[in-house]
Amino acid sequence: MEPGGQLNMQELLQQAQAMQEQLFSAQRELAEAEVKGTAGGGLVTVTVNGQGEVTGLSIDPKTIDADDPADTAETIADLVLAAIRDAGREAQQLQQEKMGPLAEGLGGGGGIPGLGGAGGGGGLPGGFPGLGGPGSGGSGGSGA
């Protein structure tokens, strides 16, 4: 601050630029990160990037029962949904680790869309499409 308590605009601009660089860096790290979610004791594994986008799906062949294809299909669908939700939670936790400190630097993230905190909604803008979380607008599964 300058004498008299006035903000130094140059300092303010430098701080804003530094925060913007930190934000871009955190977003790049999230885009490159991968987290996994599992269900059924590892029978189904889903991989998502740090932004919550599904990038991989693995189903153990032991999951398939050729004698009961209808039950097997339902079981696999349930396990896939559970693994996606697990991976989504992991991705949200990673987002909080990467973006949380930036939100705190902006006053705690309250009311800053996509950065969590009070009124923020959690996660990055747009949430996790297709992961079935609140506000995601994603698929709900079989309707059961």
Could you explain the architecture of this structure?
With 144 residues, this protein is α+β, with helices and mostly antiparallel strands. The chain contains 2 helices and 3 strands, in the order H-E-E-E-H. The chain has helices spanning 9-32, 69-105, and strands at 34-39, 44-49, 54-59. The chain has a 3-stranded antiparallel beta sheet. The chain starts with 8 loop residues before the first helix and ends in a 39-residue tail after the last helix. Mean pLDDT is 75; it is low at 109-144.
Would you summarize the structure shown here?
This protein has a domain at 15-106: Nucleoid-associated protein YbaB-like domain (Ybab, Chain: A). The chain is 42% helix and 12% strand.
Percent helix among the residues?
40-55%
**Amino- and carboxy-terminal Cα gap:** 60 Å
Output the radius of gyration.
20 Å
Largest sheet: 3 strands, antiparallel
Structural class: alpha+beta
**What value does the average pLDDT take?**
75
Q: What's the CATH superfamily of the domain at 15-106, by name?
A: Nucleoid-associated protein YbaB-like domain
Q: So, CATH architecture of the domain at 15-106? A: 2-Layer Sandwich
Which stretches are poorly predicted, pLDDT < 50 over at least 5 residues? 109-144
Characterize the overall form.
rod-shaped
CATH topology assignment of the domain at 15-106: Ybab, Chain: A
Estimate what percentage of residues fall within beta strands.
Answer: 5-15%
Helical segment count: 2
Total count of strands: 3
